[in-house]
């Protein structure tokens, strides 16, 4: 839909340059049973304790929720070993990212994101009238030297996801520290840890220690991925007190509803459930990665709950996507991330992984036969 701009009622600079975020597809016209592997959701859903807590909160919906999120911040603090005073909760981590952009960047400022970084970083920069600066990666991995080379006195925010979406790759501990250490004085490093809980046995630092030891790092996290609560919209961030104080001055006072607060607290405390989901994800990620690679669609080394599979050309990736759709399997095209020859496939449950492995193998065999 193309809408003609109004002659006098004109949005702020940058707004009409934004190409709206498009999420993973969730339905196939005409199909009544689909397996959705397009949005990196938890195929097992939330902890039963979260569902139970939410049900318990249903009787109290007439009252405003706690705008200070005290119980939820206490639970996050206890489980993660953090100071609750420096935790801020958002309506999804998307809201945390937006609040950071609103507070720290504006017209004339630059906001850095990486070549294949999460699409919302650029939108957040444009939303506040700042200039988004895209920095190249190396081997589909965040490159600290390239980011530092792109920094200048106008740089206000550097957004990176670690592990990154849609590549699944990560920056190791020492590199992350080097990035934080060498940023210009006016730049804030935002480490988006949406997939941090899925990393196992790698040289990985979620960035919490950097928040503690420095003044220029914040970490964002979400309940939408491993906690299986994407529909409730719960995110949080951990940062230095001066950042948390700034954002708390203008964030919407009741940005988390009572059901989200109740479920979020219970889900955070169910550490066994989170661990089980992370273990299972690793098992099926390794299995599916091997199968796709054997079939001729090699995957990057993913540390998250999805794989980025390489089909060689845009045409073949599109054909594979259509082939999977016809079998009720929805995956994510990555052309908008500058990766038209690939598809991002979320790690489903056993049934989902087996279905997608079989369909990709069948597709590649047919391709080979017709080539
Ligand atoms: C999914 C995702 C998020 C989560 O956003 P929510 O608003 O918490 O649902 C954040 N960052 C990245 C990189 C993601 O892939």
Automatic annotation (TrEMBL):
Domain of life: Bacteria
Gene Ontology biological-process annotations: L-histidine biosynthetic process
Pathway involvement of the protein, from the record: Amino-acid biosynthesis; L-histidine biosynthesis; L-histidine from 5-phospho-alpha-D-ribose 1-diphosphate: step 7/9
Residues covered by the Aminotransferase class I/classII large domain: 33-358
EC number: 2.6.1.9
EC supergroup of this enzyme: transferase
Sorted UniProt keywords: Amino-acid biosynthesis, Aminotransferase, Histidine biosynthesis, Pyridoxal phosphate, Transferase
Residues with PTM N6-(pyridoxal phosphate)lysine: 225
GO molecular-function terms, A-Z: histidinol-phosphate transaminase activity; pyridoxal phosphate binding
InterPro entries for this protein: Aminotransferase_I/II_large, HisP_aminotrans, HistidinolP_aminotransfase, PyrdxlP-dep_Trfase, PyrdxlP-dep_Trfase_major, PyrdxlP-dep_Trfase_small
Cofactors (names): pyridoxal 5'-phosphate
Catalytic activity as recorded in UniProt: L-histidinol phosphate + 2-oxoglutarate = 3-(imidazol-4-yl)-2-oxopropyl phosphate + L-glutamate
Family assignment from sequence similarity: Belongs to the class-II pyridoxal-phosphate-dependent aminotransferase family. Histidinol-phosphate aminotransferase subfamily.
PANTHER family reported in the protein's UniProt record: HISTIDINOL-PHOSPHATE AMINOTRANSFERASE, HISTIDINOL-PHOSPHATE AMINOTRANSFERASE 2
Subunit comment: Homodimer.
Protein name per UniProt: Histidinol-phosphate aminotransferase
UniProt organism field: Albimonas donghaensis
Gene: hisC
């Amino acid at each position: 839909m193309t809408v003609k701009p109004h002659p006098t009622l004109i949005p702020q600079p940058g707004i009409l340059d934004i190409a709206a975020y498009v999420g993973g597809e969730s339905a196939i016209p005409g199909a009544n049973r689909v397996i959705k592997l397009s949005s990196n959701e938890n195929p097992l859903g939330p902890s039963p304790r979260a569902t139970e807590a939410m049900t318990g909160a249903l009787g109290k919906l007439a009252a405003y929720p706690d705008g200070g999120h005290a119980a939820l911040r206490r639970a996050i603090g206890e489980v993660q070993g953090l100071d609750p005073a420096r935790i801020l909760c958002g309506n999804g981590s998307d809201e945390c990212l937006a609040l950071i952009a609103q507070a720290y960047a504006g017209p004339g400022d630059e906001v850095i994101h990486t070549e294949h970084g999460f699409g919302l970083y650029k939108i957040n920069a444009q939303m506040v009238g700042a200039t988004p600066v895209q920095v190249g990666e190396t081997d589909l991995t965040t490159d600290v030297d390239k980011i530092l080379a792109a920094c200048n006195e106008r740089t206000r925010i550097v957004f990176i996801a670690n592990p990154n979406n849609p590549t699944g790759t990560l920056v190791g501990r020492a590199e992350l520290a080097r990035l934080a250490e060498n940023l210009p004085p006016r730049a804030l490093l935002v480490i988006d840890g949406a997939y941090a809980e899925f990393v196992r046995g790698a040289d990985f630092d979620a960035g919490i220690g950097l928040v503690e030891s420095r003044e220029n790092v914040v970490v964002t996290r979400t309940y939408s991925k491993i906690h299986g609560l994407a529909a409730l919209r719960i995110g949080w961030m951990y940062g230095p007190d001066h950042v948390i104080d700034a954002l708390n001055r203008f964030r919407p006072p009741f940005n988390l509803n009572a059901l989200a607060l109740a479920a979020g607290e219970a889900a955070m405390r169910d550490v066994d459930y989170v661990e089980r989901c992370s273990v299972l994800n690793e098992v099926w990620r390794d299995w599916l990665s091997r199968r796709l690679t054997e079939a001729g669609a090699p995957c990057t080394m993913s540390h998250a709950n999805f794989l980025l599979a390489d089909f060689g050309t845009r045409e073949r990736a599109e054909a594979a996507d259509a082939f999977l759709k016809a079998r009720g399997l929805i995956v994510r095209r990555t052309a908008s991330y500058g990766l038209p020859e690939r598809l991002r496939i979320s790690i489903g449950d056993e049934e989902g992984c087996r279905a997608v492995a079989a369909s990709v193998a069948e597709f590649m065999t047919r391709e080979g036969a017709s080539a």
